[in-house]
Automatic annotation (TrEMBL):
Signal peptide positions on this chain: none
Keyword Nucleus: no
Keywords: Transferase
Organism in which the protein naturally occurs: Mikania micrantha
Record protein name field: Glycosyltransferase
Sequence similarity: Belongs to the UDP-glycosyltransferase family.
Record GO terms (molecular function): quercetin 3-O-glucosyltransferase activity; quercetin 7-O-glucosyltransferase activity
Highest taxon in the source lineage: Eukaryota
Lineage start: Eukaryota, Viridiplantae, Streptophyta, Embryophyta, Tracheophyta
InterPro entries reported for this sequence: UDP_glucos_trans
Keyword Transferase: yes
Length: 548
């Protein structure tokens, strides 16, 4: 864990204002980033929505400013509507005026250290206009990996429809009405000439074909849906299709978010260079502002103090009694929901294996149930001492425990990073958003886990667990993820052949200080940073002076 240098606090004497989106997977990284910046001498103020508000008592060294988020007006929809895009767009509208008023008030406070910059979650795209209006530099935190952003950006530019739903195609009339506004004239394929069909953009052809076939009752070959994306050969079309139930809204949301990311003063990523080095160069071209790979954040500050759900720590003593690498850890994150039948398939899959397990079942995980009502009859009695079911866990400690043998995960980016950093192989059951792309990277690119391609089905679950825990394939997976774990260690170790762990912090600190009019970096030497490519330090249109 990083410790604060008191000399930096007196030297910096600047404030940073941060604004996270109110979802567990976004709040954790923002508060971890705040802690990292605090160790470099910055005072920290967190503006936050009242929905899923962080607990100020867990962060006594920060100041917290709640704003009205408008969620009280849509409380009924929160309980039934699972479209995350809808809520993110709603937040961008409902928070704009309260955020502007709060930020203006903070800037006008007398007797406070000057504000160096604003850092917001990339999803709050409205914040760029507010920052420009108040003449305050804005940097963004992107909580997903680089490859996901590149895939989203390609999908948005290609004009592809934003939803074909997992393995089942949506037949919503609203989607069909939306399509003609985004494609060439839309009509039955039987009336289109071969020459006209050939002119359709190659990137969109598979998607258009799917929708045309739906209208005329033709079939759509599974091979097309399973095909690789030309620009990302190791990512399948179905991975970037499983995004949202609101295709038009998602396209609009991503366009706004990426436009304002490109207008920002810099992008901070919760990833590390050794994991996504090939994508860094592409990111620097597609998003020509300074990029900083500062992760993994949890290696600096664990997420324990920023958890919105109380953790059950009793499982740690239970883990102490288990054999090394024998436990299957199951958790599908803070936002995923599954059906009752899927929940029961998970239960049967765990019941039929001979491995001990920890199963995190967050209240509300199962649609229509409060908690465990949908478990198969006598499941808990049959489980006995072989398993534990909890509402929430201290995940970082569970993954770091020597008894943990594999992680069955939804592949949220935070969970994926934590598993990599602890060298724990993964079984992948992604749900939405960036998760399918993260899972494809885990299974097909980095080859550190297996993908449950057929969803929640007990036989497939048993086979996947055996592949990871018993087969030679599992041994090879464990070796590869152990190598990645070592790369993380090397990237963080001071004095290694890689970039120093604290050097990345210094880059961000110096970038923030450089945004202040008339300011100079804390060490005014015109020296390059050894081992750091120039495009990762500054973009071509910004001059740089860096600390050595």
């Amino acid at each position: 864990m990083v410790t604060t240098d008191p000399s930096l606090r007196s030297a910096t004497r600047r404030r940073i204002i941060l604004f996270p989106t109110p979802f567990q997977g976004h709040i954790n990284p923002m508060l971890q980033l705040a802690n990292i910046l605090h160790t470099h001498g910055f005072q920290i103020t967190i503006i936050h929505a009242k929905f899923n508000a962080p607990n100020p008592s867990n962060h006594p060294h920060f100041s917290f400013k709640p704003i009205n988020d408008g969620f009280a007006e849509i409380a009924d929809q929160l309980a039934t509507n699972q479209d995350a895009t809808y809520f993110r767009k709603y937040l961008n509208k409902s928070c704009e005026d309260p955020f502007r008023d709060c930020l203006a008030g903070l800037l006008a406070e007398p007797g406070q250290d000057p504000v160096a910059c604003l850092i917001t979650d990339a999803a709050f795209y409205f914040a760029q206009a507010v920052a420009d209006e108040l003449k305050l530099p804005r940097m963004v935190l992107r909580t997903s990996n680089l490859g996901c952003v590149l895939a989203y950006d390609w999908k948005n530019r290609s004009g592809s429809e934003w939803n074909l739903g997992s393995s089942q195609y949506s037949r919503s009339s609203s989607e069909m009405q939306w399509l003609p506004r985004h494609y060439e004239p839309f009509f039955e394929v039987s009336s289109a000439s071969p020459s006209y069909r050939w002119k359709i953009n190659k990137r969109c052809r598979r998607w258009l074909k799917t929708l045309i076939c739906r209208r005329i009752g033709s079939t759509f070959p599974d091979s097309d849906y399973e095909a690789s994306v030309p620009e990302f050969p190791l990512v399948k079309f179905k991975d970037i299709a499983k995004i949202t139930t609101n295709p038009h809204g998602m396209g609009e949301f991503v366009t706004n978010m990426f436009t304002q990311m490109r207008a920002s003063s810099g992008i901070i990523w919760n990833t590390f260079k050794e994991l996504e080095e090939s994508d860094l160069e592409t990111i620097s071209k597609d998003f020509p502002v300074p990029s900083f790979t500062l992760g993994p954040f949890h290696e600096y500050f664990p997420a324990t103090s920023s958890s919105l759900i109380e953790q059950d720590r009793t499982i740690l003593s239970w883990l102490d009694k288990q054999a090394p690498k024998s436990v299957v850890y199951v958790s599908f994150g803070s936002g995923a929901r599954i059906t009752e039948s899927e929940f029961q398939e998970v239960a049967h899959g765990l019941s039929n294996i001979n491995f001990p397990f920890v199963w995190v079942v967050r209240p509300g995980t199962v649609a229509g149930s409060e908690w465990l009502e949908s478990l198969p009859e006598n499941f808990v009695e049959g489980m006995g001492e072989r398993g534990r079911i909890v509402k929430w866990s201290p995940q970082h400690e569970v993954l770091a425990h020597p008894a943990t043998g594999c992680f069955w995960t939804h592949n949220g980016w935070n969970s994926t990073l934590e598993s990599i950093c602890e060298g724990v192989p993964m079984i992948c059951s992604p749900c939405y958003a960036d998760q399918p792309i993260n899972a494809r990277n885990v299974s097909d690119v980095w080859k550190i886990g297996v993908f449950l391609e057929d969803g929640f089905e007990r036989t497939g679950i048993e086979m996947a667990i055996k592949r990871v825990m018993m087969d030679k394939e599992g041994e090879e997976i464990r070796e590869r993820i152990s190598c990645l774990k070592e790369k993380v260690k090397l990237s963080l170790d001071e004095g290694s052949s890689h970039a120093k762990g604290d050097l990345k912090d210094i880059q961000v600190r110096e970038r923030i200080l450089s945004l202040i009019p008339g300011s100079e970096p804390m060490c005014g030497k015109d020296l390059p940073i050894p081992g750091v490519p120039a495009h990762l330090v500054w973009s071509r249109h910004i001059s740089a002076r860096w600390a050595c």
